[in-house]
Amino acid sequence: MKREAIRAFFHRLHEANPNPQTELEYASPYQLLVAVVLSAQATDRSVNLATRKLFALAPTPEAMVTLGEEGIAECIKTIGLFRNKAKNTLALSHLLLERHGGEVPATREALEALPGVGRKTANVVLNTVFRQPAMAVDTHIFRLANRTGLAPGKDVLEVEKALLRRVPKDYLLDAHHWLILHGRYVCTARKPKCGACIVRDLCLCRDKTD
After folding, report:
1. Axis crossing angle, helix 3-16 with helix 169-185, rounded to the nearest 10
2. CA 80/CA 71 separation, integer angstroms
3. Active-site amino acid positions
4. pTM of the predicted model, to two decimals?
5. Most buried residue, 18, 157, 188, 195, by CB count within 10 Å?
């Protein structure tokens, strides 16, 4: 996709949704961090159902440590890999208290040093909380970037780097949310809703649906 088309692509997404937000529910940077860790191989909807109960009991790192691994697991048992996620949630809460005074750090290195926090999770936190131009590439964004020709790549890191190069700077801070929402609800995996797509004419996919 050419640069003029990319700018038009994001202009339309911006016009349709000027202030895109994550669909994860949270009331603090810490809660967003935990929610993103829990969202691995789980839907935002299932995570929100679990965290409503979890954050009511443990809204802070201190409270999470007090709740303990079994208490965390009981709250999140409806989502996949809940035992490992409970272990990581407790461990990262301990480390936040020990290393960062209970605050979520604003650097990639410090975030990725926390249990259960990989590059994608760090990117979500850096972008959503600290408004840094980071690009978290999940399955939706990876599919959309390749299918549309927006930023093709053989793996998520290649797509991430391509998006950071190609997305116009004035759209970069919100690009992650626009792309994930478009991939989740319009440019879906099995039956993309091309007939309802506001960027259909810019998309390079040859197999568009009606």
Report:
1. 70
2. 16
3. 120, 138
4. 0.91
5. 188
